[in-house]
Amino acid sequence: MRDPNEPNSNRVDRRPSIKGRSNPKDAGRREQPDSLRASRNPSQRSRDPQRMNPGINPGMNPGNHPARNGDVGSTRPPRKGAVGSNRLPRKGAVATKRPAGNRDARTERPIAPRNPEAARDVRTAPKNLPVTSTSDAVPMDAPLQIQAPYRMSMAMLLITVFLICFGLVMLFSASMATGYTAAEDPLFYVLNQSKYTLLGIAMVAIISMIPVRFYDKIPFVAIAYLLTLALVIYTMFKGDVLGGARRWIMIGKQSFQPSEFAKIALIFCIAGYRSFILRLRKKGHLVCKTSRAQSYMNAIFDIVLPVGLVMLCLIFVFLQPHMSFFIIMLVLLFVCLLVSKIPLKSWIDGGLMLLLLALIGGNVFMGVTSFEQKDKLLGNYEHVLTRLNIFSTMTSEEEEGVPAEEKASDNDVFQSKQSQIAIGSGGLLGVGFGSSRQKYQYLPEAHNDYVFAIACEELGFVGGVLIILLFLLFFIGGIAVAFRTRNDFTRIMCIGYTCLITIQAYFNIAVAVGVIPPTGITLPFFSYGGTANLFFLIAVGIILAISRTGVERKKLTVLM
Questions:
Q1: In b/e form, how buried is each residue of 354-366, taking b as 16+ CB within 10 angstroms?
Q2: Buried b (16+ CB within 10 A) or exposed e, 169-208
Q3: Fewest Cβ atoms closer than 10 Å to its Cβ: which of 240, 446, 455, 547?
Q4: Domain limits, the chain
Q5: Is the pTM of this model over 0.85?
Q6: Tens of pLDDT along 32-53?
Q7: Torsion sign, CA atoms 340, 346, 350, 351
Q8: What average pLDDT score do residues 328-333 get?
């Protein structure tokens, strides 16, 4: 039997070549000592044939290499801290403890077991993947949170449906005599209204199913604003005159009032503009070097610019003239800016800038306008003075002795007096549905501006209070949705459209009972006006879309 330590020149070294080890190919290289070879080859120990082949004599070290620290057969003690060593680890070393069970060593939390089938070969695994530690794994006993599904506000939907049905029924009753006189058909007005109502319901179904973030794009805002501006300018110069005011555009045989479209579009533009400005600020734009310059810039972009753009449209509507639209949009503009969370400093600086611009613009207008043009312009607002005289005459006492030039004529106050007679005739429970007397040509515009008076006559005080409460519930439902919105865009639109419908409804009711002067404002969902109710339903559709996809969804916690 051959001695293992006996050198054998015929034996071929099949071990892998290691730097510093003798090799026929490295004959020309300089021989290095074993100590340097070991220090530069930390992998040499792992490639030792003694450890790779346990069948070799443990007392010998093949390859004529001396045994190293801790090797089997070595006479020297193992290294400090090595396996099987009785010596303490070196200074500064931290002893690691294997966690008990399937738990993380640092957080002591249970780790979800890995799926062996999901393991992938390192050679086929994709590169540049983020490395996650075991401490980032989801604990097995952690509660699970589930988001509630998308659901629209059922309260707003039911209130809207009730308002639509109630309005069509009251319009049928109030327009029977007028429809028979105008078209020999008692159902003439209610059928036309039903067509636009069905179209509006279809628009509500479509709009409410589209995620509201789809509308939050500045191109949509620009298109809506430019279209509104073009319509109001065209109406001012080329519109049709009905009732002494140039407010309508004829499309075939159907009249269209652009101001109703402008109410919806301008609120959308205010919300979209505010959302766009906030996105720019998050990206680091609109920033000045000094605090004072930053304050002025904030005032310009928060107050001056949006108010100026909206006033550009309102001026053309004001010149038609259409005072009721002008007043309502001023109120809605203030409400939309109020809920935009604009700082008080911007309000003050922006208000002063707007006041200065108004004074400069007014002086320039008075300087370039001739006397005849001024007199013609004031002649367009004679109806405003007439309505103020009607209001003062209706609210004044006979013994006060109001001057004759300030009194309204009997023809002027006829409509307001007949409205109050209809409301007073209803009493507590009314004269009965369809039994109104004032709708038989006694009360002008009974199916339009004064449908509330007919409802009070037929349904009494109870019916009038019911209509008021319905619009109050609509307002509360819209505000409840606005409180759950996730950003300024949805909040401004929700509050703006809710206030639009509610304010217009209460203005109409106030005119019918004689609290404010006549304004020509219709009652949403009750008064006759196909295009107006179509745009009101579009506003409702946007509110329902916000309640479905524009609010923070509720989170349900499930304990595992």
A1: beeeeeeeeeeee
A2: ebbbbbbbbbbeeeeeebebbbebbbebbeebbebbeebb
A3: 240
A4: 156-383+406-557
A5: no
A6: 555 445 444 544 444 454 444 4
A7: positive
A8: 93
